[in-house]
Design goal:
Elements lengths: L1 E2 L12 E2 L16 H5 L5 E4 L3 H11 L5 E4 L11 H8 L4 E4 L2 E8 L3 E8 L4 E6 L2 E4 L4 E2 L19 H6 L33 H23 L2
Parallel strand pairs: 1-6, 3-4, 3-9, 4-5
Antiparallel strand pairs: 2-10, 6-7, 7-8
Helix pairs in contact: 2-3
Flavin-adenine dinucleotide binds next to helix 5.
C-alpha cells in the first residue's frame, strides 16, 4: 500500500505485521464497535475476509447506508463460514468485491477516499469513503528468532507453561508467566502467543515482564 498526498499516511510491517493505513485524523479504525458505527452513516469500506470481517459487515449494514467488503481472494468461502456468507447475501446494502485490494488511502484530517485495484482487470478506481475497517489478521514476523525460542504454529512466541510444553525448556524450575522457552528471555504484547492484541494489554504485560526480569535476576544471583 502506498501513502497518498505527501507521505501523510503510513503503512508498515512490524513484529506482528499488518498492512496498516493510518490517516492522521482517523477514519481507519482497527476495531468495529458501536461508537465507530455511529461515525459512518454514509458508507464504509472494509478490507478483509476473515470471520470477524463478516460479522463486522453485518453489524455495520444496520448503521451505514452501504458497506463494501473488499476481498483479495477468489471468494469469501476461502476463509469465511457458510452461515456468515449466507447472512451477508441477505443484506441488500452489503456489496462484496472479490480479487480487490486497497492500494492507497487519501484524506486530510479524515479519510476521504480509497483507491481499489481490481485484480481481474488491473484497473484502479478511486472511491469516496468516510471509513475503512481493516480486518486482515496479523502475521508474526519471527523467522529471525533462534530455534531455542519456541513458537506456535502461526509463529507467535510461546511463553510460560506453553513454552515448557513445547519441549525445549531446560531449566530445573518452571518458566515465569511471560518467559519464553529460553530461560531469561521474555515476550510480551502482540508477538506473544495467546496475547489479547490490544494496547493496554501489551503495556500491562510489559510492566509485569519487568518485575519478572527482576525475579529472574534474583534467582540467577543466588548461589
Ligand atoms: C489497524 C490497527 C488498529 C488498532 N487499533 C487498536 C485500538 O483501537 N485499541 C487497541 O487497544 N489496540 C489496537 N490495535 C492493536 C494494538 O496496536 C496492538 O495490540 C499493540 O500496538 C501491540 O503493542 P506491541 O508493543 O506488542 O507491538 P507493536 O505496537 O507492534 O510494537 C512492536 C515494535 O517492535 C518493532 N520491531 C519489530 N521487529 C523488530 C526487530 N526485529 N527489531 C527491533 N524492533 C522491531 C516494530 O517496528 C514496532 O515498533 C490496533 C492494531 C491495528 C493493526
Amino acid at each position: 500500500m502506498r501513502p497518498a498526498g505527501g507521505g501523510r499516511l503510513t503503512a508498515g510491517r512490524r513484529g506482528p505485521a499488518y498492512s496498516r493505513p493510518a490517516p492522521a485524523g482517523g477514519g481507519v479504525p482497527g476495531g468495529a464497535v458501536g461508537v465507530e458505527a455511529d461515525a459512518i452513516r454514509e458508507g464504509a469500506g472494509q478490507v478483509g475476509p476473515d470471520p470477524t470481517a463478516g460479522q463486522a459487515a453485518i453489524f455495520f449494514s444496520s448503521h451505514a447506508r452501504s458497506v463494501t467488503l473488499l476481498v483479495r481472494g477468489e471468494s469469501l468461502a476461502e476463509s469465511m463460514s457458510h452461515y456468515l456468507i449466507e447472512q451477508i447475501a441477505t443484506k441488500a446494502n452489503i456489496r462484496v468485491e472479490t480479487r480487490s485490494e486497497v492500494v492507497a488511502v487519501h484524506g486530510d484530517e479524515q479519510l476521504e477516499a480509497i483507491e481499489v485495484i481490481d485484480r481481474k482487470t488491473g484497473t484502479t478506481t478511486r472511491r469516496d469513503a468516510r471509513a475503512l475497517f481493516v480486518l486482515i489478521g496479523a502475521q508474526a514476523a519471527t523467522d529471525w528468532l533462534p530455534p531455542e525460542i519456541s513458537r506456535d504454529e502461526h509463529g507467535f512466541v510461546l511463553t510460560g507453561t506453553d513454552a515448557m510444553k513445547a519441549g525445549q525448556w531446560n531449566a530445573d524450575r518452571e518458566p515465569f508467566a511471560l518467559e519464553t522457552s529460553a530461560p531469561g528471555i521474555f515476550a510480551v504484547g502482540d508477538i506473544r502467543s495467546g496475547s489479547v492484541k490490544r494496547v493496554a494489554a501489551s503495556v500491562g504485560e510489559g510492566g509485569v515482564a519487568i518485575a519478572l526480569v527482576h525475579r529472574y535476576l534474583q534467582l540467577s544471583s543466588q548461589p
